[in-house]
UniProtKB/TrEMBL annotation:
Protein name, entry field: Glycoprotein endo-alpha-1,2-mannosidase
Molecular-function GO terms, alphabetical: glycoprotein endo-alpha-1,2-mannosidase activity
Matches recorded under PANTHER family: ENDO-ALPHA-1,2-MANNOSIDASE, GLYCOPROTEIN ENDO-ALPHA-1,2-MANNOSIDASE
Family in the record: Belongs to the glycosyl hydrolase 99 family.
Lineage: Eukaryota, Metazoa, Chordata, Craniata, Vertebrata
Length: 463
């Protein structure tokens, strides 16, 4: 009987302890649930709100919302105050940046990434820009008649096959710029190749963005990144206008600590300019600017630089050499789309460049899809294959041992080449592609992985 009483008391005590433990666990779970970020994405376990990365993201979204609320004033005032807002934001976050500096991968200044600041929304720009991209007709009217016309209607319907984690953002939003810098730094890229038009000029679907350059430079410096320029094919671009453009950029931005200069084999530190669609201008015009004997020669002047031409067709390599360019890049993220973007041609192009004292900069990309703006262009789509396409491109680039690798792109959403964070989204009209089964940052992580691999292999090449 005594043993039975002891056992009964033991069982009661055990049950009470177990019940208290369960209540304790439940209270912790409820507490965690109350700490869940209000804007946590679909499927986020509620406990993730306590992780440092998620906390930073929540603070970012909160500060972005505050910025959007403050931005309801006059459009002209918003633009003129943009730089001071960015500077004040940066001053307020000096301490967190030091901590971030310790957590983020070191920048690789041989990894260059193409970046676009042409996006706008009503909060910062008074209207949507680029997210409402028109559907481009096929040049053959018979084919064009088989496809829809019109333009996209943001924020639910945007001109992209993927949907950004930051939504249909404005490139003028300081919190967006900072988020982009942090993402690029986390990917261990080092140089931002900024899409650029001269002051007052823009692409046919956008608006001038030169006034954003100081803000981009400031935030790049904060994350120890550098900025170089991707000069777009504006109207009447020639040797004379290019001379003035280069002079303008170097005079206005060249003294900024984030302005990129490349150390050449002779020890010179020179700015670098990527020139998109360079083949549109004949070699004789370029030679006026880029050869020592040219009538508009920039060589051996305070504005001398490294000029990198776009190679599309095989014959362009001879034109590039004759024009006086310092190197070539391939830009397109579609393996097989052009001679330059076809991985199997890179070894031959690298050999040509080596024998002619030129730089060869292959461009790698995570995939390609632009059917949201060119619905007839399915044949050029390149499936991401859950990151395998991107890794194959990196592997092909490393085989030719390039001095620099360029990445197409950070945020060219129209062509689906972005590595910026994207999220699943479904509307009544469209189901957007996403990075599942991986997380939104998978392509940033893959870039960081290959940046480290490149560093290790480069050390062996130099040996």
């Amino acid at each position: 009987i005594l043993n039975y009483d002891i056992m009964a008391r033991f069982r009661r005590r055990t049950c009470i302890i177990l019940l208290l433990f369960i209540l304790f666990i439940c209270s912790i779970m409820m507490a965690l649930k109350t700490l869940r970020p209000d804007r946590a994405g679909f499927g986020d376990p509620f406990g993730l709100g306590l992780l440092p990365e998620l906390q930073q993201r929540t603070v970012l979204l909160d500060s972005k919302q505050n910025s959007l609320n403050r931005a309801q004033g006059d459009t002209v005032t918003r633009v003129s105050n943009l730089h001071s807002i960015a500077v004040n934001t940066m001053k307020a976050s000096v301490s967190p940046v030091k901590k971030l500096e310790e957590e983020l991968s070191s920048p690789n200044y041989n990894f260059h990434i193409f970046y676009y600041t042409w996006y706008g929304n009503p909060q910062f720009d008074g209207k949507y820009i680029h997210w409402n991209h028109p559907l481009l007709p096929h040049w053959d009217p018979k084919i064009a008649n088989n496809y829809p016309k019109g333009r996209h209607n943001p924020p639910e319907d945007i001109g992209a096959n993927f949907y950004p984690e930051l939504g249909s953002y404005s490139s003028k939003d300081p919190t967006v710029i900072e988020a982009h810098m942090k993402q690029m730094r986390s990917a261990s890229t080092g140089v931002i190749v900024l899409s650029w038009y001269p002051p007052g000029m823009a692409d046919e679907n956008g608006e001038p963005t030169d006034d954003l350059v100081p803000v981009v430079l400031d935030y790049a410096q904060k994350y120890n990144l550098k900025v170089t320029f991707h000069i777009e094919p504006y109207k009447d671009r020639d040797d004379r206008s290019m001379y003035h453009n280069v002079k303008y950029i170097i005079d206005k931005y060249g003294s900024h600590p984030a302005f990129y200069r490349h150390k050449t084999s002779t020890g010179r530190l020179l700015p670098m300019f990527y020139v998109y669609d360079s083949y549109v201008t004949i070699p004789e015009i370029w030679a006026n600017l880029l050869t020592v004997s040219g009538s508009q020669s920039i060589r051996n002047t305070p504005y001398d630089a490294l000029f990198i031409a776009l190679l599309v067709e095989e014959r362009h390599k001879h034109d590039i050499h004759r024009s006086g360019f310092d190197g070539m890049y391939t830009y397109f993220a579609t393996n097989g789309f052009s001679y330059g973007s076809s991985h199997h041609n890179w070894a031959g192009l690298k050999a040509f460049c080596d024998s002619n004292n030129l730089m060869f900069i292959p461009s790698v990309g995570p995939g390609y899809i632009d059917t949201s703006i060119r619905p007839w262009n399915n044949h050029n789509t390149r499936n991401r294959v859950n990151g395998k396409y991107y890794e194959t491109a990196f592997s092909a680039a490393l085989l030719v041992r390039p001095e620099i690798i360029s990445i197409t792109s950070f945020n060219e959403w129209h062509e689906g080449t972005q590595i910026e964070k994207a999220v699943p989204k479904r509307t009544g009209q469209v189901v957007y592609l996403d990075y599942k089964p991986h997380k939104p940052n998978v392509y940033l992580e893959l870039t960081q992985k290959w940046s480290e691999k490149y560093r290790k292999e480069q050390e062996q090449w130099l040996m």
